[in-house]
Amino acid sequence: MGTEQDPGGASGPAGLGDARARRRGIGTRGRVALVVIGVVAVASGAIAVVRAGHRTDVPGQSAGSVTPGTAERTAGAADEQVRDGRVRDARTVWPEAVASLPKTSADGLGYRPVTALGPTEILLTAGPSFEEPKRFDVYDMKTGRSRTLVTLVPGADGYVQGGVEVGEDYIAWYGRRPKEPRSWVDFWVVPRQGGDPIRVGEVTGELAGIDRFGVSGDHVVWSPEAGGVYRMPIGGGKPEKIPETDGLWLASWPWARNVPAASDIETGLLDANQNVLADLRTGVRQNIIPPQDATGLRCSTEWCVGRQGGGAVAVRVDGSDLRRVPWTMTEPEVYGGRFVEVYRDTTSMIYDLAAGKAGGITAPSPDGRSGSYGQGASSSPTAVFFWDAKQGDDYDVLNLAAIPARE
C-alpha cells in the first residue's frame, strides 16, 4: 500500500465519499492509492497509474431479454487495432471530443472535472483541495473559457464534499462530516443555469451511507448501502422511500438496478449479474437474461457488459449484438450509454461499443514504464476522462457527450 503523485507533481485529487470512491481505494481522509501487483487503482476524480504487467483493479414497455450464448466476434475497427497493435490517442480518434483544460483556475484554485453538461461544457469543482471545493465552474471546450456556476456555502470544521450529480434541471451535491460518530450528510442543489445554492435537508444513520446519488426535477434521490431508493423534496420535506424499490439501487436517475454500485469489493458480490433495469418514473421493469456463463453483468439503457470465459463481453439490452470486448476491461461499467474502460500494458483506453473504436486516455511517464489518467468525479458513471497534456499546466479532457451517436 502506498501513495502516488499526479502527473503534474501535486498530490492526486481526493476521492468522493460515495461507494464508487470507496470501492476503488479511496478513504475519507484524502486520496489513497491502492497498489496491487504494480497497479494503482483509479478513483473517481483521481489519477490512476497504470504500470506494465497484469492489472488487477478489474474488478421499454415490454421486457427485453439478453439471449444466452458465447460471444464470437469483436467490432471491426477495434479488431484491426488488436491485430496490428495500434493504440491511437483519443484526440486522434475523436478530435471534436477532446480539449485542453487548465489544471487551475485564474485565481489559483485547483480544478477537478466532474462530468459533462453537454457536448461543449464540462462541470468542474474549484478549490484549494478536492474535498473542500469553493465553487463549481463550467468550462467551455470551444472558447477555452471558464465561468462560475455557483459559490458554495462553507461547511463547519471537518465538513467535506461528497457526491456531485448533474440532472436535467439541477446540479446536486452532498456534504459529509467524517469525524462525527454517526453517519450524516446534507443535500444541496443549484439550477443548471447557476444561482444561489439551495440546502435541501439532511439525513443521518443508515440513510446517510450513500451508495449512489442523483437528482430529479423536484427531488434529490439516492440509495443507501442497504438498498432501496429514497427521495427528499427540493422545496423541503422529509425523506421517503420510493414505492416498490426494495432490492433495487439507484444506477443513474431515473434508472435503478438490482445490484449496488459497491457490489464488487464491499459486498463480496463481484460476480453478481444485473438482471433488472427499472425506470423509476414509470415503474416499468425490464428483465435481462445474462449471456451463458457471464458474470458481473452491468447494464446501461443501451448496452450490458460483463465477463465470460476469461475475457469481457458486451450485448445490447434487448439481447442482440453479443460480442467480445477487445483488450482487457477495467471494470464492468458502462459510461455514456455505450463506452467502457479497457487497457493494454501501460495504456488505458475508452472503447465505443457501438462503433468499435478505441481512443487512448493515458499520459505516459518519461521512462515509458507507466501511464496515468483520471476519471470525472460524478456519483453516477461520468462522461469525462482526463490526462496530462504535453504542456504541464493543462489536462487533455475527453467528453463522451461530444462523440457523435452514429458514426
From TrEMBL:
Keywords: Membrane, Transmembrane, Transmembrane helix. It comes from the Bacteria. Residues 80-89 have a biased composition (Basic and acidic residues). The lineage of its organism: Bacteria, Bacillati, Actinomycetota, Actinomycetes, Streptosporangiales. This is DUF4185 domain-containing protein. The chain crosses the membrane at residues 32-53. Residues 1-20, 56-89 are annotated as: Disordered.
